[in-house]
Design brief:
Shape of chain A: elongated
Number of helices of chain A: 1
Oligomer: heterodimer
Radius of gyration of chain B: 15 Å
Mean pLDDT of chain B: 88
Strand order of the largest sheet of chain A: 1-2-3
Structural class of chain B: mainly beta
Largest sheet of chain B: 9 strands, antiparallel
Structural class of chain A: alpha+beta
Distance between the termini of chain A: 52 Å
Low-confidence stretches of chain B: 6-14
Strand content of chain B: 25-35%
Strand content of chain A: 25-35%
Chain lengths: ~70, ~140
């Protein structure tokens, strides 16, 4: 892993098209600004982990009772 | 409550399900690329998304139209291109249902499965507006 030291206001550029800028440091929270082309998805890493975990919980292994949807 | 057994492969064959290809698999199930989408009238609005490889387990899925009528995941350009979607009408949306121990059920609105209706190629996408939606949206069950 490449580790760089940056101060607030400083940036790094990835692949010539994605800019990651340290906006502010407030205690143990780092505010990061990301400028990327529209086709580059940017998400918090937790989103992937949460969906992965949810998929695993949703897996059906045996006979189940299907719920009946309440009428709207 | 309807009691049902997991669909067997034979039943799948009888019902001529759509075979959906997920080139990237589902998150956490990247190695499984082929699924059968099994819709049985008596189970509406639920459908089964059954693995055609490996352990052949299933996910319960539902069209978001039955859950949140104004659900509008903003699909990234990259995902639209990957799926070959040229208009919103090309896309079929499925959301994974989790059955909870207490008889309740939740729907994952953060990671819909988006399928191109014409090619039957799909992907579990994370929409650009993912922050608007919940991972465990409660399903109104009676």
């Amino acid at each position: 892993m490449l580790i760089l030291s940056r101060k607030p206001g400083e940036s790094i550029v990835i692949d010539g098209r994605i800019t990651v800028k340290v906006m502010r440091v407030e205690g143990d929270v780092v505010k990061i600004g990301i400028e990327a082309p529209a086709e580059v998805p940017v998400h918090r890493a937790e989103v992937y982990a949460e969906i992965q975990k949810n998929n695993q919980e949703a897996l059906v292994n045996g006979g189940v009772k299907l719920p009946r949807l309440a009428k709207r | 409550m309807n009691t049902m057994e997991l669909p067997e492969t034979e039943i799948v064959a009888e019902n001529k399900p759509e075979v959906i290809q997920l080139p990237l698999g589902l998150l956490g199930f990247e190695q499984i690329k082929n699924y059968a989408l099994l819709a049985r009238p008596e189970e509406e609005p639920f459908m089964w998304f059954q693995m055609l490889e490996g352990a052949k387990q299933s996910f319960l899925v539902i069209s978001p139209a039955f859950v949140l009528p104004d659900y509008q995941p903003d699909i990234s350009n990259d995902d639209a291109e990957f799926l070959g979607l040229t208009s919103p009408d090309d896309a079929m949306l499925l959301n994974i249902v989790t059955l909870r121990a207490n008889g309740q059920a939740t729907v994952n609105l953060k990671g819909p499965i988006v399928i191109n209706r014409h090619t039957l190629i799909g992907k579990q996408v994370i929409p650009n507006n993912v922050a608007q939606y919940t991972l465990q949206h409660p399903l109104p069950v009676s």
